[in-house]
Design a protein that fits this description.
This protein has helices at residues 7-16, 19-25, 31-41, 48-58, 67-78, 85-94, 103-113, 115-123, 135-147, 153-163, 169-178, 184-192, 200-209, 225-228, 230-233, 238-248, 252-267, 276-288, 299-311, 315-328, 334-340, 347-355, 362-370, 376-388, 395-402, 409-422, 428-435, 442-455, 461-468, 473-482, 489-501, 510-523, 528-534, 543-554, 559-570, 591-604, 610-617, 623-636, 639-651, 657-669. It has a domain at 487-604. The protein is built from 40 helices and no strands. Helix 37 (610-617) packs parallel to helix 39 (639-651). The longest helix is centred in the middle third of the chain and has 16 residues, at 252-267. Helix content is 63%, strand content 0%. It starts with 6 loop residues before the first helix and ends in a 7-residue tail after the last helix. The chain is an all-alpha fold and 676 residues long.
């Protein structure tokens, strides 16, 4: 073929392995043909003929648009062509302020090629960073961060001071990515004394955290490393304080300081060196890595944690102290945690901590639940802990609380929740009786309904279904999701009614409809016919609800679900079908629904999806949707899937990079080389 006059010609050349034809096409009079041919040469074997053609494109300065030179740089990077490094560096240096803005592809190519020459060239630009403009500096620094050359540390440190204080963060991030301990001293100084009004301290601390553990603590003669981290440990930014706490916990001196923070805060809660979030960060680290803080006689440390659990005025500190005490003191934490169950602000967190103890104090929890001299908060916390600990022997006591009309509603509700977590069969009947008793408080009935859904006893289904139509909002809101606990066709049909009614003018609330779709997904195979029927009104549903419906269909492995997704993705618009009931009218195809379905099919990527994915490629959906479909077909990898991708590429009027990548994948699968 003498030349290419269309995208189809280029695709044919690529699939024929016609290197010479593509090289000629880079000199076409049509700009788009030149660019697309250049892009395709990046998938070649890098023969001398190809490299020469790409060099010619890279040096061409008479282009109105930078696309040709851009793609030439990208292609040389893909080929790892080391001979291109000097030219790429020249462009990066000499043309950094031109309108073509080729810094992105040239830097990317240099990173892809790598090697000593590319590294030396990029490192050599460090002395120009302070005078760089726009994204040029950012891209050079990002390239060094990706290559991680140790030889860049010294010039970056020199450049750092020229950047302070306003623009130093990017240099600091690059030093952190390189991870060389020689940068630690500078990073420590920045962490200790940040510029006001910047995020420099947090960036410096994050860079220190990125250093290898083996190089910690870094060499720093004076002051000690730990002292330089005191300031960031109490920084107003909680994330900075957290990371600094992690760094301090790596050494014995650092851990001593962290205990000192707790000690000082215990004696003076308003001390400026121990703000509440810094104290919480210490407790959180103890909870996360209790083994780091092991001591021969940890009694004093246990006492500190107990003090903050009992006395701190800040709930976040008390929560963190509870978790730390449970992880660090373990069995010795029981008494203080049981007492803390009475703290209504943190009772749920304390209950979870108690449940996670190696040996939860089950007898004491039962005593708290059944005793008469305890607060409601303590009893409620004990109830939650028994449920979270999976203590099935507590079921009789919980049932007794549930049936006690004189007990506070909050405590009975907690008992219902705990029974739902334990799922004892004998709890189903009393929970059902409570749920349908309209004389009981609505919040209590709502908790009972939720527990019934978790237990899933078939004979309680009518009660849950009736509650789904309750006029009480809390009961209704819990009953609809609870229907998902009954894997039966009747439950699926009821949930389908809630979804379909959401499309009506006076339908159900959006939250209820969303819960119904989620519950249908939980039911499993019995819900498939309902999901299929609901697909018929997908266009009438809100976009958010339609997305959830598509996700529920996509989760079903049956071929019928795949077929419905395919019909949804490709059906013509059915705007005149509004108001139809499930199963009536044509499947609709609004753009949001079609795109959600196309995405679901792309993620599914099974052989049954080939035909619907191919149909997606023939639609007018955005390039991102079509790219996902192409990648899914490539993952399927059959000859049929590849043929559909090729047909799509042949019909394209413009090639994106993902088109070219797809052609490379198919060519490799068929043993077609683009070059010797």
């Amino acid at each position: 073929m003498e030349g290419a006059s269309s995208v189809a010609d280029l695709v044919r050349m690529r699939m024929d392995g016609d290197v010479a034809g593509l090289c000629r096409a880079t000199r076409s009079e049509v700009h788009d043909i030149r660019v697309d041919a250049t892009m395709m040469l990046g998938g070649s074997t890098g023969s001398p003929e190809v490299v020469e053609a790409l060099f010619a494109c890279l040096r061409r300065r008479d282009e109105q648009y930078p696309g040709l030179r851009w793609q030439a740089a990208v292609a040389l990077g893909k080929l790892r062509e080391r001979r291109a490094v000097p030219e790429l560096l020249r462009i990066l240096i000499e043309e950094r302020d031109t309108r073509e803005q080729l810094d992105e592809p040239t830097v990317g190519a240099l990173v892809a090629i790598g090697g000593p020459e590319a590294v030396r060239g990029l490192v050599g630009l460090c002395d120009q960073l302070a005078t760089g403009r726009g994204y040029w500096t950012v891209r050079v620094l990002d390239a060094l961060a990706r290559l991680r050359p140790p030889e860049a540390v010294t010039p970056l440190l020199a450049a750092l001071w020229g950047y302070l204080p306003e623009r130093a963060e990017r240099v600091v991030r690059t030093l952190g990515a390189i991870g060389d301990p020689r940068a630690a001293s500078a990073l420590l100084v920045l962490a200790h004394s940040p510029a006001p009004g910047t995020q420099l301290r947090g960036t410096a601390v994050a860079a220190l955290h990125a250093l290898p553990d083996a190089d910690w603590p870094p060499t720093h003669h004076w002051p000690p490393v730990e002292r330089l981290l005191h300031a960031p440990q109490r920084d107003p930014d909680p994330e900075t304080a957290r990371v600094a706490t992690v760094l301090l916990s790596r050494t014995e001196d650092g851990r001593d300081h962290l205990w000192g923070v707790l000690r000082t805060a215990a004696s003076d809660p308003h001390h400026p060196d121990c703000p509440p979030h810094a104290v919480a960060a210490v407790c959180a680290r103890v909870a996360e890595r209790p083994g780091l803080f092991d001591a021969p006689d940890p009694g004093d440390y246990h006492a500190l944690l107990r003090h903050h659990l009992r006395e701190s005025a800040v709930p976040a500190v008390r929560r963190a102290a509870a978790r730390a005490l449970a992880a660090y003191a373990r069995a010795d934490a029981s008494e203080a945690l049981l007492e803390a169950l009475g703290d209504a602000r943190i009772s749920d967190d304390v209950a979870n901590a108690v449940a996670r103890l190696p040996k939860p104090p089950l007898r004491e929890l039962l005593d708290l639940l059944t005793g008469t001299d305890h607060t409601v908060a303590q009893q409620r916390g004990a109830t939650r802990a028994l449920g979270a600990a999976g203590h099935t022997a507590a079921a009789p006591a919980l049932l007794a609380v549930l049936s006690d009309d004189a007990a506070p509603t909050a405590l009975r509700s907690a008992a219902a929740e705990a029974l739902g977590a334990l799922r004892p069969p004998e709890a189903a009947a009393p929970l059902a009786a409570l749920a349908e008793d309209e004389e009981e408080p609505g919040t209590l009935r709502a908790h009972a309904v939720r527990a019934l859904g978790l237990i899933g006893a078939p004979h309680t289904f009518p009660v849950v279904l009736a509650c789904a139509g309750s006029p009480h909002e809390a009961v209704r809101a819990r009953a609809v999701p609870a229907l998902g606990g009954f894997p039966m066709a009747e439950a699926a049909r009821a949930l389908g009614e809630f979804v379909s009614r959401s499309a009506e003018p006076q339908g159900v609330e959006p939250d209820v409809a969303r819960a119904a779709v989620h519950a249908l997904g939980r039911i499993g195979a019995p819900a498939l016919p309902v999901l299929v029927a609901l697909a018929g009104i997908a266009d009438d549903l809100s976009e958010n609800l339609a997305d959830r419906l598509v996700a529920a269909l996509a989760a079903r492995p049956e071929a019928e679900a795949t077929a419905v997704l395919g019909r949804l993705a490709t059906s013509p618009s059915a705007r005149n079908a509004r108001g139809t009931k499930p199963g009536e009218g044509r499947l609709s195809a609004s753009r949001p629904v079609r795109e959600a379905v196309a995405t679901a099919l792309s993620e599914r990527a099974t052989p049954e999806c080939v035909a619907p994915l191919a149909a997606v490629l023939a639609t007018d959906m955005g390039s991102g949707i079509r790219e996902a479909a192409v990648r899914a077909l490539l993952r399927i990898g059959t000859d049929e899937a590849h043929e559909h991708v090729l047909a799509h590429c042949y019909a394209a009027t413009h090639l994106y990079s993902w088109h070219v990548e797809a052609l490379d994948v198919i060519a490799e699968a068929r043993g077609i080389r683009l070059g010797p």
